[in-house]
Amino acid sequence: MQTQCFFTTGAALPKSFRLSLVVACLALSQPLQAAASAEEPTIEPALESNIERLSVQGKKLDSDTEPTAATVQLLSVAGLLNDPLSAVFSLPGVVYADGDYGGAPAVRGSSPGDNAFLIDGLPAGYLFHIFGNSILNENLLQDFQLHPAAFGAEYGNATGGVFAAKLRNPRQQDIGGIADLSFMQSGLLIEGAVTETQAFYTSYRQSNLQYFFKKGDELDDDVTLYQPPTSSDYQARYLWQPNEQHQFTLTAAGARDEARANIAKNAEQGRTDPDTIGDAYIHTRFDSQLAQYQYQLPGVYQLQLSLQQLDDQQQTGFGAGQFIRYQDKTRTVQLLNQWQYHLDHQLHFGVETQQRQLDYRFDVVPYYCTDHQPDCFAQRGERIQDFGDINYRSDSVFVTEKWQLSPAWNWQLGVRLEQQDYQQRVLPQGEKQRLVLPRSQLSFAATDQLELLLKAGRYSRFGDIDSVLPKTGNPELLQPKADHLAFGANYQLNNHWSLSAETYLKKLSRLPLALTEQDADQAKHYSNDTSGKAYGVELLLRKTPESKTAGDFDGWASLSWSKADRTDERRQITTEYYLDTPLIANLVLNYQLSERWKLGGRLTVRSGAKYSAIVGSKPNPYNPGYRVAVYGEHNAETLPLYHRLDLQADYDSTLFGLPATYSYAILNVLNRRNISGYYLMAGKEDQAQSYQIQADENIGIFPSIGIKVKF
């Protein structure tokens, strides 16, 4: 489950509070984000351009013990200190939804909540810590893929993109490991063989930021730190492969984030929004256990059976006793099959069932609002309390036929069937929601180097939980839907250079609309009366590494153009979406200076996001003596141009006779204070202007040093 904000206040949060705590968006966090999808046993490397041929490959014990070439390249992006998931922000069409640190990824005009986040084909609790670094040890990642649009029938519960991470298998080696240390975090990995057919690894990492603060530190004007922000994560896997046809794995993974501070009345946030005065805290964690069995008859058949238990918990609090607590338990059974029943035909099919139990309790002042409302403060409700225990089930089946029509033509035709009984469980007259989601892909190998692709599909996902809970939302809401269409071309210039282009169209429907006093059914809080669309074109030029010799280089350059909007179907008003970012350019380069030194750089330049300008202020009707912002035309203004340059140097050496790599990075070398929004801030008593508009700036230049030692 990806942690996100809801019940947000009308004013944007000041950078000083958000970054010092990142107390999960003022501890206003969404308690449930359903993201369940399937991942097929055989996966193509991300970012690679290859012309598909039908085949089912057999695997040996060490076949998935090393990362793919594309993943290795993602690991080397400058400024990320080997964090591959953060590298997705350097790919075309991906932007931060809320600043450089702690912001969730948004893909091709969709919201972050439209994405699915998977580990080994099954839902992850969340993939990013509250400071933006990922929860996965980079030394354990075998493959990472981003499917930005028109993905296959094996993926469900997503209308935006699919982020699919795959952990590698333990290596057959003497027991050893890797220790790493940086400003951000430290970690330890132990790995090795138990017998000739069994191996294991275990990894634990913990943040180091808490060592730079202590209890009672004043982070900003009258913001006192009670508990330094800390995060940790772990992964462990045990593998048994008795022969080349059978494989059993047991995997455990989890993460934890927590922080606590006090906002005084005279703090920036307290002067602006008195509802936030008091203690603010977040404690969030997830733990998952996964058992998988794989059977393979080389060249003919593959089977994968997965059993997962996921426990996701969160406690957040703020202001005068407001809080949100929940525990979300999910049990998933998934069966995937791949059958080469004819030389030119391959059948992929799978089934999945999920049983979810959500226990929740909250005491909040709600804001009935979406990410496409000009003024959330106008949607404020009276303080409410509630608790409950909701059990519901979702089931899905998919079938995909891959047909080699000719040596040049390949056609994939699939369908996904989904149903869930949430409404049946919470409404007296509720019924199951059932969906039929067709998918198709046609590829043409025009030459040995050029491949053309046409993809289309229909998609859906479970709605945001705050919009469908009985007391904070409308349980009658239907699931949002999306239709994707994409046309692309991949051209392999030579063994190391490739060029790809893709144009896409996304049509979104049944999105939630927050109801206002102008609506006769305002008491329902939300309806399915928002639609939207996103379209654009992307170019990607990629160079893979040739060798680890001086003078070799690799990387990629990408350019994206896009448009995104949302329409209020009740009033027939169309406005640009706040994540509408027309132009995005990325340049990633790695240069092998010598046998030991490797240099890297990453440059991102993009248009500013849309926002609604603050044109004035008015009295706060709920808190006399305070004022709130008055906004102009919805998303009519554009933030300043965004650009950021990161540099990194890696040096291979030894430490106490052990192989070691030293990393030196400078983030935001140009010290660009990129602006992610504006907010209304009350001045101090001695200031002539009682209220002023402040820019919410991202972090400036930031150096970092890291070391990784193998033993």
UniProtKB/TrEMBL annotation:
Cite the GO molecular-function annotations of the record. Answer: siderophore uptake transmembrane transporter activity
Q: Which InterPro entries match?
A: Beta-barrel_TonB, Beta-barrel_TonB_sf, TonB-dep_rcpt-like
Q: Does the keyword Oxidoreductase apply?
A: no
> Pfam families in the record, alphabetically?
TonB_dep_Rec_b-barrel
Subcellular localization, as worded in the UniProt entry: Cell outer membrane
Q: Does the keyword Disulfide bond apply?
A: no
TonB-dependent receptor-like beta-barrel domain mapped to chain residues: 240-652
Q: Under which name does UniProt file this protein?
A: TonB-dependent receptor
Residues in the signal sequence: 1-34
Give the UniProt family note.
Answer: Belongs to the TonB-dependent receptor family. Hemoglobin/haptoglobin binding protein subfamily.
Question: Which species does this protein come from?
Answer: Rheinheimera riviphila
| Keyword field | Cell outer membrane, Membrane, Receptor, Signal, TonB box, Transmembrane, Transmembrane beta strand, Transport
Primary location recorded for the protein, binned into one broad class: membrane
Q: Which GO terms describe its biological process?
A: siderophore transmembrane transport
Q: Which domain of life is it from?
A: Bacteria
Its record classes its membrane topology as: Multi-pass membrane protein
Instruction: Choose one Gene Ontology CC annotation of this protein and give it.
Output: cell outer membrane
